[in-house]
Amino acid sequence: MAGFNKVVSTYEEALEGLKDNMTLIAGGFGLCGIPEGLIAHIKTMKTTGLTVVSNNCGVDGFGLGLLLEDKQITKMVSSYVGENALFEQQLLNGELEVELTPQGTLAEKMRAGGAGIPAFYTATGYGTPVGEGKESREFNGRQYILEESITGDFAIVKAWKADKYGNCVYRHTAQNFNPMAATAGKITVVEAEEIVEPGELQPSEIHTPGIYVNRVIKGTFEKRIERKVLAK
């Protein structure tokens, strides 16, 4: 069964094949459940022209925000972009193209892409700028717009535990966009807090089956808090 072992030991191996002008799908929500080490290594690779699909673009100096520093991202497909001043600056300067997408629609775009569904109808966005130029259709007296699904050249996700075959478990809210992102990449790379032997994860607790995963690497995580709010 050695041929099923998907564990790699270096970030170079984990991201082998990532090139300029590719589409990268990244799991996480804010700074929760993001593949910190993989993102940091992409910065050192100096890969440019990237289209990045993610809930947001991190914060200044951390997460996907690192990739803005050297203008490695050309286009962001996101649902929220409010915590990053450099993002705002590049958007207003015309250096960064941004496609804002309703959050549920973005999640379904990833899920549908991973399931081989090219497009789907949703009521979200009908009659707003989101729906402009998109095909619409009425179902049961309600209007819906057609949204195309998303797939990427690479998907990078963060797991709490992964086994050597690539089966993944996400912890609590770190599940967020990771399961959908994991299905939507031609090459999916998992950065895990812990790698366990096959059979240690119960089938009922697995969130992402290893069939979707190409590579697994053990990471170390800062788990930075995006915004700390304390009661008085």
From TrEMBL:
Keyword Transferase: yes
Keyword Transferase in record: yes
Coiled-coil features, chain-numbered ranges: none
Gene3D superfamilies hit by this protein: Glutaconate Coenzyme A-transferase
Keywords: Transferase
A Pfam family assignment: CoA_trans
InterPro entries associated with the record: 3-oxoacid_CoA-transf_A, CoA_trans_fam_I, CoA_transf_BS, NagB/RpiA_transferase-like
SUPFAM superfamilies with a match to the protein in the record: NagB/RpiA/CoA transferase-like
GO MF entries: transferase activity
Family annotation (NCBIfam families): pcaI_scoA_fam
Protein name in the entry: CoA transferase subunit A
Organism name: Fluctibacter corallii
